[in-house]
Amino acid sequence: MNELVLATGNPNKVAELSELLGGQWTVHRRPDDLPETVEDGETLQENAAKKAFEVHVATGSAALADDTGLFVATLGGRPGVRSARFAGPDATAEDNLRLLLDEMSGATNRAAYFETVLVLVDANGGQTVVSGRCDGMIANGRAGRGGFGYDPVFVPADGDGRSFGEMTADEKHAISHRGRALRALCHELA
User: Fold this and answer.
1) For a FRET experiment, which of 50, 68, 103, 186 has its CA 20 to 30 Å from that of 84?
2) Can you give the residue ranges of every domain in the chain?
3) Residue 23, pLDDT score
4) pLDDT: is 96 or 20 the higher one?
5) How many CA atoms lie within 13 A of 185 on its CB side?
6) Is 67 considered catalytic here?
7) In this model, does residue 18 exceed pLDDT 90?
8) What's the predicted TM-score (pTM) here?
9) How far does Cα 120 stand from its chain's mean position?
10) Which of 67, 122, 151, 170 is catalytic?
11) CA-CA distance, 72 to 134, in Å (whole number)?
């Protein structure tokens, strides 16, 4: 069994990644005493790589980092790489969701996609990069209590009309950006 340290302090991401990686690796969460990585990259890959390398250097273990963005057509691709900080540097998920719905008010083009980039830095410092994408649309309002972040307003094109927030974890993982990226990673490492 391979040991892997996740380069995230977000408990929702830790739970989701641990669930998706179940059986492949023994997963450890980011050490509490490790300072948060400053996500100042211009791309998802830059941010994910920075997080993975920082955790690898600090722990000496293999490290997995992701960076995920929500790209909304009518907003010119925003919030994109700044999705977690859309409403400001100290914004909560609720703040970000509220701002998104405010900015989308009255928009007819509601097309959007989620993209996740995963960077795995192995115990020797080697790097594997994969990505996953899920196309969909932004709903007019929230639906469901599941998931996290923008999930209650994102309706995936591959789904049945429900938001990620209305789906079970297994339903979401089957079609989500993060699920696709993790399956791509498992394929790369097979």
Assistant:
1) 186
2) 2-189
3) 67
4) 96
5) 27
6) yes
7) no
8) 0.90
9) 14
10) 67
11) 12
